[in-house]
């Protein structure tokens, strides 16, 4: 036999025979790749339907039994988690001040030590080092797309260039081209190259065109060309999905820090009166008229000249730099239209009332200084005398107010820095060159009408304000109530204040938004804020805010300030002379005068601290009002002897012989502690006429001491308000009692006095439990402020039960209950500070930064959490794995007072747990579900068993807390106190055995307890050096049982309550998913997979019973969160070898393939398992199997056992896959092509899934109804031709045989009935699915793909080619101007371009079909017998357009081009030309994808030069 040609030797005879078998009609219908969704199905008994969960592989066992063969490198990293995956970091907290805010050295009580520790200890952070590589932080997002595409070259296409002439000129050009002669044909046109070859200039020869080059070399060259300079990331070129915040994203919470509102910087520049005769002192504060509250402390500033200050030198020898501040930073948490700056002025006390003293300032003018020189000198001389004698006393002088939002709104409307002049009298304001604005008269007093949106204080332009008028203070109207009336009146047009005679002055103030980090700033505690370069520079003071409403922010810094505000005194009924009254305020730590403490802050131009402060004096007023504010620095630890002493003096303004300057006229005091609690609030105190007797400080002045004389018969005559700004004192009775009892246990000091009670050790247990329960009654604001310390103490009580009266008291249940209550209160009332998952920001920041296991701080020697607690007397009830034989709890009696109702002989705690779980019917194979609080019966139980299960749960509430042992008894048996409990074990236990409202509260905020548990687990593993130990040995079986029961019950709650309380179920669903995601990093991964199966099984059972898309949506959210794990690829065992099942039965897809004509006889089962959702694939690639199974089930509702109601979820499930692949594509760990190929193997079944969804995909082709969809033009023609994009004539020609055109059986074509019954996908979903397919084809191993393609039937290959063409149409680059110029412009541009491309494709097609050769074409040309188009143009003329079906003129004629020829033409050259989405087109080396070549190789067994042609174009 003659030797066969090399080309023929490579033809696959098997494939050709298979085609002929298809033509003969031996099978028909569409090959369904993914049938068998129903439980019955066509599968064999060993096959598991896609709707059922498979048993996951034992992950840890698999790693042990299949050791890696790779020593190192990127592939080796895929096998196991990196050793540095999790780390516990102790990060020093950032301190904004140069020095740490801590109390002075000395003996501090335990509560102070705990508070200081809580405010200064390092953050305990668990860091998952590779967490940012998970899908939650996918870099291929819309906001990052431009940055990632920045390096791509800009491509310019001819189709993008707009025509140079108008449309009319274009039409004329068309006519000219139609009638031109051959000689007029321009050089370079296709017509010229055909008809005038002799006269045309030769093109440059192509080098090496006729060289003989082996096909293998061409293939290798083309492959190198395709891979060189290619953009590595496909998804970086593809527009990201327009999604909301990814559900799998868990953002790191903000670091706990001190609260600040919107901050204003106020600079006081100058204060000038018409006359300058004495020092004037000013203060500035913020007031909220609507709330009737002062919302800041006073800022005192001194703008006097040095000469004027010298008048007071005898009384103020030196001034501290901190009291010289002239600028301040105010904080406003709740800005509104009702906020005012109030400026108050004081002067040195002198003889005469306020009106007399203010008269010179209203009469004399600066312009008349020369005329009134003598009078002014006299006034100045009198002032010097008063300053020398009465320099320590002040009197009220004047005040004014500035409506803050008037300034902000006026400044915000200007184009540059603004100068505003404010006054009461009408002045003519003008816009000068500097755009100065005068807000005068009525405008300065009217209220702005804009809404709350205009109350932003962060973006207005700085304004310089000039205040020109002040109001004289009235001695009988100094109270805050009078001030609020004045402020409310100021905003009315007919203001009473407008009719008053003002004091003329000029106060210049700068108001601007405060910079983020101002220099030279002092805190309210006078600590220097960073940066503070030079201590000698005049500072800026931060002014403490008193928010108008509660602010819910935990304390993070030490602060212990007290503000004393004397308000009024009534000496009307006091006998004797007492008219010029001042109050001296002292903070005493004893009763001797020398015990006055230097803790009172100075005001302005004085010492930093002093031992006493005086209120201002209202001349000749026996019942004065006061407006003073005395600021005190409280000692950290207070005793019963600390008190505030008020001494009332009559000041003699007129100097007389034998008359003292000040005469004491009364005394009263406030003890700082009452029953151990700081005393604050409003007081109406009686005033004693005599000095208090010995030991008075421990008693209240309300107690009538014998022998003492009181003003007005011991009635209250002095009103004072005491306000604390303290992070030490809770100022809540319930919190105070709880902390006091806990610290009493720490110190073991009894009896404890709380309130009127003396608590002895024998009743401490009951009081402690009642105090824990009473925490629910505490105010929310102090609970939030002391949240960190409170939760720390509750954790400590859970894991280290105290020993009281020789017995261990288990407080785990009580602590868990109140913890659940607290987190629910925060969720309910602070709903604005929650993330998308309902996680409260305060609680999540506590878990992330603050929470740590007790006694686990490596730098803390004390037994408490991070140094918490001193000598703590605690014992524990840990269920030790090695329990002494002598400790026979089965025979011991209950010795605890925690549950006196329990009788009998209890079993061991472990046995008790088993009995509890057994009473619920717990099946460790995850079949038991508990649905406490639900009316429906649990899964797997009859309705009648629900109540039994509930009763069993209620009876089991005392699993661990029912039994306590004598500490001495336990120590006798074991030689030591038992080991402390582990918090995560105790937490899981308490949660499992909880019931009723407690369990409901825990479910409402399940995320909190899950995250606490995870951090406790990681801390425990870290501190016991088990993070690198085998995962199967990390946790005891009892803890695993508790986790299993917990997951099972919560899954039951999800499926039983999603129709009743969807909001709760959504939170619960995401919380459970994140919990399991976290457990994959620390626990036995096979065990976690079994927990996922537990959830999956329960949801599936309910899902296919109800057919509710909401439940399926919940499951997709769950799956997406689980698969967002940063080591998702490793969890799927990418190196596992998929072996056929032990029995000879084929896989699910294989069984289906046999019924639809697959050539399964030649398939390799291992390869088939890789491309199908077979049981081995779903078991070994567990998470990937779940994802692809969901995709297959949702996208194929027509299969057996279909669920059409799922169709609406296709976008969501596609986004899951898209997100995963996009994340893999950009992951630097998978940058190596071998690694990426391994990752792609996990998604090989996606090819079959997408092939099966082909009829549903959006039609991106130019022609309509490409896939046989009814309802459009050309439907009849398509029904006649069938659905295939490739005709059997071409297929047979490729296969090496010939079949008459009329003998084509319809059974070869794709089934026309395969059209979607429920509608098609959207363009966005289709595009996302196709890009996922292309990623798999691009990155998968070519040999594996080729093997699978070879084993596919022709029908499948036919569909695959259709799918590839759809990809081409989807991502084909389309000129921008088409959308503006229309179809005609597009045809014209095509007539000028792509001619050579078109003819090359035509020649290629004809060469394959054998219809015409080069010789025949030359003969026909020489004879002028070329075919004419219907328009009369010759072949190659203007009508010879680029080959596009809907753009060609000849398509509209009766001469139809054979669609069989078009199919081959599109499925070869077009695939390679048109991968040109704007981003794809940016890659000049993005040539023909090798997938097409592999498909063609599978069809023909040889390349036949196609890839060479493709690559050249």
Number of strands: 32
Strand content: 5-15%
Work out the helicity level.
25-40%
How would you describe the shape? elongated
Q: Span between N and C termini?
A: 39 Å
Q: Specify the biggest β-sheet.
A: 14 strands, mixed
Total number of helical segments?
A: 51
Spans of at least 5 consecutive residues with low confidence: 6-17, 19-45, 175-185, 424-451, 858-979, 1140-1163, 1263-1291, 1295-1318, 1377-1382, 1425-1488, 1497-1513
Structural class by secondary-structure content = alpha+beta
Radius of gyration: 44 Å
Mean pLDDT value: 74
GO biological process, one term: axonogenesis
InterPro entries: C2_Dock-C, C2_DOCK-type_domain, DOCK, DOCK_C/D_N
GO molecular function: guanyl-nucleotide exchange factor activity
Protein name: Dedicator of cytokinesis protein 7 isoform X8
What does this structure look like?
The chain has 1513 residues and is an alpha+beta fold. The protein is built from 51 helices and 32 strands. Strands 3, 4, 5, 6, 7, 8, 9, 10, 11, 12, 13, 14, 15 and 16 form a 14-stranded mixed sheet that branches. Strand 19 and strand 20 form a beta hairpin. The two termini are 39 Å apart. Belongs to the DOCK family. This is Dedicator of cytokinesis protein 7 isoform X8. GO terms for molecular function: guanyl-nucleotide exchange factor activity.
């Amino acid at each position: 036999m003659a030797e066969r040609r090399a080309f023929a030797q490579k033809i696959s005879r098997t494939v050709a025979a298979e085609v002929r078998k298809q033509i003969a009609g031996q099978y028909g219908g569409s090959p369904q790749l993914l049938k068998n969704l129903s439980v019955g199905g066509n599968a064999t008994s060993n096959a598991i339907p896609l709707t059922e969960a498979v048993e996951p592989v034992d992950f840890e066992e698999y790693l042990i039994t299949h050791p890696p063969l790779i020593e190192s490198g990127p592939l080796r990293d895929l096998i196991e988690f990196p050793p540095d995956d999790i780390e516990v970091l102790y990060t020093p907290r950032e301190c904004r001040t140069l020095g740490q805010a801590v109390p002075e050295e000395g003996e501090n009580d335990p509560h102070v030590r705990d508070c200081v520790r809580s405010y200064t200890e390092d953050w305990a952070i668990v860091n998952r080092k590779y967490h940012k590589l998970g899908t939650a932080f996918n870099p291929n997002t819309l906001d990052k797309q431009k940055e990632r595409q920045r390096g791509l070259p800009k491509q310019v296409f001819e189709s993008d260039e707009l025509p140079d002439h108008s449309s009319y000129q274009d039409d004329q050009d068309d006519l000219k081209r139609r009638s031109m002669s051959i000689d007029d044909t321009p050089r370079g046109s296709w017509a010229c190259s055909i008809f005038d070859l002799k006269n045309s200039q030769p093109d440059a020869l192509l080098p090496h065109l006729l060289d003989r080059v082996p096909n293998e070399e061409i293939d290798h060259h083309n492959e190198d060309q395709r891979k060189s300079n290619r953009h590595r990331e496909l998804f970086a070129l593809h527009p990201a999905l327009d999604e909301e915040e990814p559900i799998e994203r868990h953002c790191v919470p903000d670091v706990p820090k001190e609260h600040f509102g919107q901050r204003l910087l106020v600079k006081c520049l100058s204060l000038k009166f018409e006359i300058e005769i004495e020092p004037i002192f000013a203060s500035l504060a913020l007031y909220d008229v609507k709330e009737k509250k002062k919302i800041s402390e006073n800022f005192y500033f001194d703008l006097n000249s040095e000469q004027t200050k010298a008048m007071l030198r005898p009384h103020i020898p030196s001034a501290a730099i901190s009291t010289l501040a002239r600028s301040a930073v105010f904080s406003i948490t709740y800005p509104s239209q009702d906020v005012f700056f109030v400026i108050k002025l004081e002067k040195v006390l002198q003889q005469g009332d306020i009106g007399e003293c203010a008269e010179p300032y209203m009469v004399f003018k600066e312009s008349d200084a020369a005329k009134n020189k003598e009078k002014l000198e006299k006034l100045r001389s009198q002032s010097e005398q008063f300053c020398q004698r009465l320099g320590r006393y002040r009197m009220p002088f004047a005040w004014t107010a500035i409506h803050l939002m008037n300034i902000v709104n006026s400044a915000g409307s200007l184009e540059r820095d603004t100068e505003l002049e404010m006054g009461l009298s009408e002045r003519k304001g003008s816009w000068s060159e500097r755009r100065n604005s005068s807000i005068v008269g009525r405008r300065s007093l009217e209220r702005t009408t804009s809404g709350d949106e205009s109350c932003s204080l962060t973006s207005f332009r700085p304004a310089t304000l000039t205040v020109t008028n002040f109001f004289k203070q009235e001695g009988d109207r100094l109270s805050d109530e009078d001030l609020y009336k004045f402020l409310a009146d100021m905003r009315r047009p007919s203001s009473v204040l407008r009719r008053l005679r003002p004091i003329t002055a000029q106060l210049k103030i700068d108001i601007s938004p405060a910079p983020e980090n101002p220099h030279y700033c002092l805190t309210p505690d006078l600590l220097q804020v960073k940066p503070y370069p030079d201590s000698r520079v005049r500072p800026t003071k931060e002014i403490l805010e008193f928010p108008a409403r509660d602010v819910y922010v935990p304390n993070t810094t030490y602060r212990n300030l007290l503000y004393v505000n004397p308000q009024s005194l009534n000496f009307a009924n006091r006998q004797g002379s007492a008219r010029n009254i001042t109050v001296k305020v002292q903070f005493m730590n004893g009763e001797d005068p020398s015990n006055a403490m230097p803790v009172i802050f100075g005001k302005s131009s004085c010492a930093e601290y002093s031992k006493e402060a005086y209120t201002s004096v209202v001349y000749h007023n026996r019942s004065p009002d006061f407006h003073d504010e005395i600021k005190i620095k409280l000692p950290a630890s207070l005793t019963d002897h600390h008190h505030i002493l008020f001494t009332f003096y009559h000041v003699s303004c007129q100097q007389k012989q034998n008359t003292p300057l000040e005469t004491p006229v009364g005394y009263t005091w406030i003890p700082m502690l009452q029953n151990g609690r700081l005393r604050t609030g409003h007081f109406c105190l009686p005033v004693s006429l005599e000095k208090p007797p010995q030991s008075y400080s421990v008693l209240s002045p309300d107690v009538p001491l014998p022998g003492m004389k009181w003003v007005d018969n011991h009635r209250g005559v002095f009103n004072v308000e005491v306000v604390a700004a303290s992070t030490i004192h809770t100022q809540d009775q319930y919190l105070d009692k709880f902390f006091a009892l806990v610290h009493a246990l720490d110190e073991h000091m009894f009896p404890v006095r709380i309130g009127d009670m003396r608590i002895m050790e024998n009743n401490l247990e009951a009081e402690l439990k009642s105090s824990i329960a009473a925490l629910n009654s505490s105010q929310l604001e102090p609970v939030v402020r002391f949240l960190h310390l409170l939760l720390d103490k509750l954790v400590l009580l859970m894991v280290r039960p105290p020993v009281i009266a020789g017995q261990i008291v288990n407080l785990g249940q009580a602590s868990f209950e109140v913890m659940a209550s607290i987190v629910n209160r925060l969720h309910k009332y602070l709903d604005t500070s929650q993330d998308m998952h309902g996680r409260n920001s305060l609680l999540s920041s506590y878990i992330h930064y603050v929470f740590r296991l007790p006694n686990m701080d490596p730098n803390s020697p004390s037994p408490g959490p991070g140094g918490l607690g001193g000598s703590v007397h605690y014992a524990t009830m840990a269920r030790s794995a090695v329990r002494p034989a002598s400790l026979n709890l089965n025979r011991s009696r209950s010795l605890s007072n925690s549950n006196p109702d329990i009788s009998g002989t209890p079993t061991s705690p472990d046995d008790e747990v088993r009995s509890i779980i057994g009473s619920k019917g717990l099946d460790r194979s995850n079949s038991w579900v508990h649905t406490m609080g639900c009316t429906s019966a649990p899964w797997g139980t009859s309705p009648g068993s629900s109540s039994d299960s509930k009763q069993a749960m209620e009876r089991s509430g005392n699993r661990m807390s029912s039994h306590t042992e004598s500490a001495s008894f336990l120590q006798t048996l074991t030689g030591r106190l038992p080991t402390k409990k582990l918090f995560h074990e105790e937490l899981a236990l308490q949660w499992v055995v909880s019931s009723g409202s407690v369990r409901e509260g825990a479910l409402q905020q399940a995320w909190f307890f899950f995250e606490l548990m995870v951090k406790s687990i990681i801390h425990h593993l870290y501190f016991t050096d088990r993070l690198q130990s085998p995962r199967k040995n990390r946790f005891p079986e009892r803890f695993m049982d508790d986790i299993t029961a917990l997951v099972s019950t919560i899954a039951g709650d999800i499926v039983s309550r999603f129709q009743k309380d969807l909001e709760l179920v959504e939170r619960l669903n995401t919380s459970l998913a994140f919990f399991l995601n976290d457990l994959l990093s620390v626990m036995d991964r096979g065990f976690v997979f079994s927990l996922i199966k537990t959830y999956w099984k329960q949801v599936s059972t309910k899902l296919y019973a109800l057919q509710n898309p909401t439940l399926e949506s919940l499951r997709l959210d769950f799956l997406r969160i689980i698969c967002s794990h940063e080591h998702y690829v490793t969890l799927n065992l990418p190196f596992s070898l998929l072996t056929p099942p032990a029995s000879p039965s084929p896989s699910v897809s294989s069984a289906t393939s046999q019924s639809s004509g697959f050539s399964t006889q030649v398939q390799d089962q291992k390869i088939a398992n890789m491309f199908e959702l077979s049981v081995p694939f779903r078991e070994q690639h567990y998470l990937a199997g779940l994802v692809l199974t969901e995709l297959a089930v949702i996208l194929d509702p027509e299969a057996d056992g279909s669920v059409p109601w799922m169709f609406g979820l296709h976008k969501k499930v596609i986004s899951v896959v898209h997100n995963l692949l996009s994340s893999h594509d950009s992951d630097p760990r998978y940058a190596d092509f071998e690694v990426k190929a391994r990752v792609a193997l996990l998604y090989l079944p996606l090819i079959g899934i997408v092939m099966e969804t082909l009829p549903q995909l959006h039609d991106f082709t130019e022609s309509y109804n490409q896939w046989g969809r009814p309802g459009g033009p050309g439907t009849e023609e398509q029904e006649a031709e069938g659905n295939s994009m490739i005709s059997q004539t071409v297929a047979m020609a490729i296969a090496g045989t010939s079949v008459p055109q009329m003998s084509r059986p319809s059974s070869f074509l794709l089934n026309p009935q395969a059209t979607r019954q429920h509608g098609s996908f959207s363009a966005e979903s289709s595009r996302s699915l196709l890009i996922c397919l292309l990623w798999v084809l691009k990155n998968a191993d070519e040999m594996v793909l080729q093997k699978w393609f070879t084993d596919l039937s022709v029908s499948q290959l036919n569909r695959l080619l259709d799918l590839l063409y759809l990809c081409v149409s989807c991502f084909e680059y389309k000129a921008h101007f088409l959308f503006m110029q229309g179809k005609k412009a597009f045809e014209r541009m095509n007539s000028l371009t792509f001619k050579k491309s078109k003819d090359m494709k035509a020649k290629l097609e004809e060469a394959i079909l054998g219809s015409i050769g080069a010789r025949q074409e030359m003969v026909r040309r020489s004879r002028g017998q070329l075919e004419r188009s219907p328009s009369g143009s010759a072949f190659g003329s203007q009508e010879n357009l680029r080959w596009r079906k809907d753009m060609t003129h000849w398509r509209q004629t009766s001469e139809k081009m054979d669609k069989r020829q078009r199919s081959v033409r599109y499925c070869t050259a077009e695939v390679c030309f048109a991968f040109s989405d704007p981003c794809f087109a940016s890659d000049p080396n993005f040539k023909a994808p090798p997938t097409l070549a592999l498909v063609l190789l599978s069809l023909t067994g040889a390349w036949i030069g196609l890839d060479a042609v493709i690559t050249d174009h």
